[in-house]
């Protein structure tokens, strides 16, 4: 998207150099990612960087209010409500995903696709940026892969403050379901490397009264004081997970990212936004009439992961098939038309940029990018298996 830099990168690219980069990221994390890493990062021009940052911060501000917090109580299903959710506490993590679109004047502009108050790959994206810098110094020098004004040292300090929060790292755990078989496990390894916190399978957590423990490497029962929660509720239900505790229990533990935030800031939030970057969105339960331009909308379940359940080509029959009792769990959202923003050797690609945010004492701050590149109908890394120059990467932005 920085034309001269894009042209030079494409001209200089070789498959051998990309393979060396993939080997380097596997070496840095100890795990070769199973999801596809794109052949290129995204080079973000200064004007687009400014628009991404302002849109992300303005959207976060619209949701970070007492009024929205009260409305979002309805988003948290009683079956998955976790106690001790402070009424005045802003979500610690926020991910705001933007499609890169044509602004109608020959430029590029961000349009909101999705958002969530849930951790993203804070460890892996940091490591990815460092590795790309080493692999392609001539293309990344002078550009930022972290939030404005951040250095690698200050980024890690912010992350430590958010996740460890002054505790003994041995008593802070990254909690996940079957972590050894998650595609995101390179992030678990990167987080452990940066912060020294272990990854623990939720099924192996030990409970004594209100206290939780995990088994340390030497076999001792190690107390858990704070949980960096990476458990996706959908997966817990789908796999019928059994553990010694439930998230709904009264526990003597802190949450690094309270689990209720997963529901509070989500697709549920979209109908409440009033921003030029946000699409029209309506709860299906509140839809009075089927839009005459239904082909311009997508149908999404409110709570799903990696694009599961999304219908891109919606028909009136699709809407009618959803039972009345379930309609409040679906959203009809205006389609976003991605621009063919990325020039690649085998044709243009679409780009999505995640603005990874942390809540600090000074409010929300953009700290890192996660980018997805696609040449198909869906953007997730589980799609586009048969294409090249697609997948996940990061952004490098002009200062």
Mind telling me the C-alpha Rg? 21 Å
Could you list the spans in which at least 5 consecutive residues all have pLDDT below 50? none
Q: How are the strands of the largest sheet arranged?
A: 3-2-14-15-16
The biggest sheet, with number of strands, parallel, antiparallel or mixed sense and barrel status, is:
5 strands, antiparallel
What share of the residues lie within helices? 25-40%
Give the averaged pLDDT, no decimals.
94
The counted number of beta strands is 17
| Straight-line N-to-C gap | 15 Å
What fraction of residues sit in β-strands? 15-25%
Query: Would you list the SSEs in sequence order as H and E?
Result: HHEHHEEHHHEHEEEEEHEHEEHEEEEE
Shape: globular
Q: What structural class should be given to the helix and strand makeup? A: alpha/beta
- Distinct helical segment count: 11
């Amino acid at each position: 998207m920085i034309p001269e830099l894009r042209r030079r990168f494409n001209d200089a690219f070789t498959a051998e150099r990309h393979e060396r980069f993939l080997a380097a990221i596997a070496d840095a994390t100890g795990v070769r990612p199973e999801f596809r890493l794109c052949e290129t990062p995204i080079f973000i021009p200064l004007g687009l960087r400014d628009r991404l940052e302002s849109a992300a911060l303005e959207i976060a501000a619209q949701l970070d209010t007492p009024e929205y917090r009260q409305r979002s109580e309805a988003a948290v299903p009683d079956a998955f409500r976790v106690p001790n959710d402070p009424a005045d506490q802003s979500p610690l993590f926020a991910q705001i995903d933007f499609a890169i679109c044509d602004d109608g004047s020959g430029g590029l502009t961000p349009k909101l696709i999705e958002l969530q108050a849930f951790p993203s790959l804070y460890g892996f994206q940091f490591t990815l940026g460092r590795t790309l810098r080493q692999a392609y110094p001539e293309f990344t020098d002078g550009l930022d892969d972290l939030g404005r004004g951040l250095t690698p040292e200050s980024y890690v300090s912010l992350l430590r403050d958010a996740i460890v929060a002054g505790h003994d790292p041995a008593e802070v755990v990254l909690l996940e379901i079957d972590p050894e078989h998650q595609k995101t496990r390179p992030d678990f390894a990167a987080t452990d490397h940066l912060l020294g916190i272990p990854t623990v399978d939720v099924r192996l957590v030990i409970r004594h009264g209100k206290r939780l423990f995990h088994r340390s490497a030497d076999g001792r029962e190690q107390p858990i004081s704070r949980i960096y929660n990476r458990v996706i509720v959908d997966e817990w239900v789908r796999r019928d997970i059994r553990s010694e505790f439930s998230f709904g229990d009264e526990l003597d533990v802190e949450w690094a990212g309270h689990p209720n935030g997963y529901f509070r800031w989500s697709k549920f939030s979209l109908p409440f936004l009033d921003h030029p970057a946000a699409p029209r969105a309506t709860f299906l339960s509140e839809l009075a009439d089927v839009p005459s331009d239904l082909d311009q909308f997508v149908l999404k379940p409110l709570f799903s992961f990696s694009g599961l359940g999304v219908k891109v080509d919606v028909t009136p029959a699709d809407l009618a098939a959803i039972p009345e009792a379930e309609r409040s769990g679906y959203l009809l959202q205006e389609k976003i038309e991605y621009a063919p923003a990325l020039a690649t050797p085998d044709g243009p690609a679409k780009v999505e940029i995640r603005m990874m945010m942390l809540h600090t004492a000074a409010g929300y701050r953009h700290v890192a990018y996660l980018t997805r590149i696609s040449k198909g109908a869906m953007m997730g890394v589980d799609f586009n298996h048969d294409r090249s120059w697609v997948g996940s990467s990061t952004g490098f932005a002009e200062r």
